[in-house]
Design goal:
The complex is a heterodimer of chains A (132) and B (273). Chain A contains 4 helices and 3 strands, in the order H-E-H-H-E-E-H. By secondary structure, chain A is mainly alpha-helical. In chain B, helix 5 runs antiparallel to helix 6. Chain B has 273 residues and is mostly helical. Chain B starts with 6 loop residues before the first helix and ends in a 7-residue tail after the last helix. The chains are: A mainly alpha (132), B mainly alpha (273). At the A-B interface, helix 2 and helix 3 of A face helix 2 of B.
C-alpha cells in the first residue's frame, strides 16, 4: 500500500499494507464517520484539512478502486437519505479490515509523532498530552 | 443547493453542462477498466465541483477548478495507465523478451557457421529492438482478448510494418537505403500509429486505418515516379511489386479487422466504432 495504495488481495496482517499513501489515508479517514459518496469524500477531506488537500476525481477514484480491490472499503447497498440524493451515486464505507488497517496506520503515525516530539523536531514544541 | 431558475442560474447550468461534457471527453485518457467502473461517478463528481465553483466564485471559480483539474487529470491518467500496464503486461513482456533473444540466436549461430552472415553489434541491437517492439505491440493490443480475426488482423498489420521498417533499414524499398524516397514509408507507418490511437484499436476504426495505410503505401511509388522520373527497368517493376505486396498485406489486415467488427456486432457487443 505504501507505493501503490493497495497491492492486491486482502493481506492477513494490516501492517503489511503500511504506510498508506496520503490519499488513501484521507479517504479512509473520511469514511470513519459513516458512508459517503465520492463528492462527499472530497468535501470531507477539504473541510477537515482546511482546504489544503483537494482531491480531484482522478486521484479520488484511482484510490477508491485500489482500496476496494484491497478490501479496505466496499460499496454500500443502502443510501443514507434516498429522498435527498441522486440514486445513481455509489456510497462507500469502511470494511472491518479497512478499519484495522487505518488503526494500524494511525498508530504508526502516532509513534512517529511521539519520536519527533522526543527529539524536539517540532518548530514550536508543545507540552505532550501525557504531560511527559 | 437548488437555486431559482433565473437567467443567471440557466447560464450556470449551461456552463456546468459544458464543463461536464469536456471532462467526460478527457476521461478517455484513463484506462478503460477505470472508466467503465467509475467514469460516470467521476463525471458526476466533476459536475458537482463545477456547480459549486460557479455558485461560489462565478466563472473565475470555474476557471480555477479547471486550472487545478487539468494537471491532476494528466498525472493521474499517466499513473493509472502505467499501473494497468505493469499489472497486465508483466508476464507477456517477459515472454516477448525471451522470444526476441531466441530469434536473435539464429543470426548469432548463422555467423558462426557461415561467412555470408555478418552482423555487427548495432545490427543485433536494431533487430532486437524491432522484434521486441513488434511483439510488445502485439501483446498490448491483443491483451484484452478479441476474436481470432482481430488477432490475425493485428498480427498481419504488425508483420507488414515490421517488414517495411526492416527492408528500409537494410536495403531500402526504392533504390538503396540512402534514397530519400524511402522516408515516405515512415509516413505510412505514422498513419497507422496515429490512426490506431484515434481509433482506440477498435476493429471498425482499425479497418479504416489499414485501408488508409494501403492507400498511402500505393501512393509512395507513384510520388517517387513523378518526382524522380526513373527509366522503367526491372528494378522499378520490382519496387512496384514489393509495394503491391505491402498493399495486399495492409488490405488483408483491414478486411480481417472489418470481419472482427462484424463478429462483435453480431455477438451483441454493441457498436464498435
Amino acid at each position: 500500500m505504501g507505493s501503490g495504495e493497495v497491492a492486491g488481495k486482502r493481506s492477513i496482517d494490516p501492517r503489511d499494507l503500511l504506510p498508506l499513501t496520503p490519499v488513501a489515508l484521507n479517504v479512509l479517514l473520511a469514511l470513519v464517520d459513516g458512508e459517503r459518496h465520492g463528492y462527499g469524500i472530497m468535501l470531507e477531506v477539504r473541510e477537515r484539512t482546511g482546504g489544503s488537500v483537494r482531491l480531484g476525481p482522478g486521484t479520488l477514484y484511482g484510490a477508491i478502486k485500489r482500496l476496494k480491490e484491497g478490501g479496505l472499503i466496499e460499496e454500500s447497498g443502502t443510501r443514507p437519505d434516498p429522498e435527498a440524493d441522486d440514486e445513481r451515486r455509489s456510497y462507500y464505507r469502511l470494511t472491518g479490515f479497512g478499519s484495522e488497517v487505518l488503526a494500524a496506520e494511525v498508530e504508526r503515525l502516532d509513534g512517529l509523532v511521539r519520536a519527533a516530539r522526543r527529539k524536539g523536531a517540532f518548530p514550536a514544541q508543545q507540552p505532550s498530552p501525557e504531560g511527559a | 443547493m437548488v437555486s431559482p431558475r433565473g437567467p443567471r442560474s440557466r447560464r450556470h447550468e449551461r456552463a456546468v453542462g459544458t464543463s461536464q461534457r469536456v471532462y467526460r471527453a478527457l476521461l478517455r485518457a484513463y484506462p478503460r477498466e477505470l472508466r467503465d467502473e467509475y467514469g460516470d461517478e467521476m463525471v458526476r463528481c466533476f459536475r458537482d465541483l463545477s456547480r459549486e465553483a460557479l455558485e461560489g466564485d462565478g466563472r473565475l471559480g470555474l476557471a480555477a477548478l479547471w486550472a487545478r483539474t487539468l494537471p491532476e487529470w494528466l498525472s493521474t491518467a499517466l499513473k493509472e495507465r502505467s499501473t494497468m500496464l505493469a499489472r497486465n503486461a508483466y508476464r507477456p513482456v517477459v515472454a516477448v523478451a525471451l522470444g526476441t533473444v531466441a530469434l536473435l540466436v539464429i543470426p548469432f549461430v548463422g555467423m558462426r557457421i557461415s561467412n555470408d552472415w555478418n552482423w555487427s553489434l548495432f545490427d543485433f541491437i536494431v533487430m532486437g529492438a524491432l522484434i521486441f517492439g513488434t511483439g510488445l505491440a502485439y501483446v498490448l493490443i491483443t491483451r484484452k482478448g478479441g476474436t481470432m480475426a482481430y488477432r490475425f488482423a493485428v498480427g498481419m498489420a504488425l508483420a507488414a510494418a515490421f517488414l517495411l521498417v526492416w527492408i528500409n533499414l537494410a536495403v531500402g524499398v526504392i533504390g538503396s537505403e540512402d534514397n530519400p524516397a524511402n522516408l515516405m514509408y515512415f509516413g505510412v507507418l505514422a498513419i497507422g500509429f496515429i490512426g490506431a490511437i484515434i481509433a482506440e484499436f477498435r476493429p471498425r476504426g482499425m479497418a479504416r486505418v489499414l485501408f488508409a495505410m494501403a492507400f498511402a503505401q500505393a501512393l509512395v511509388p507513384v510520388i517517387a515516379l513523378i518526382i524522380w522520373k526513373p527509366q522503367v527497368t526491372s528494378g522499378v517493376l520490382g519496387v512496384l511489386t514489393l509495394n503491391g505486396l505491402f498493399v495486399v498485406l495492409f488490405i488483408g489486415s483491414a478486411l480481417l479487422f472489418r470481419n472482427a467488427a462484424r463478429e462483435l456486432t453480431a455477438a451483441g457487443a454493441g457498436p464498435q466504432g
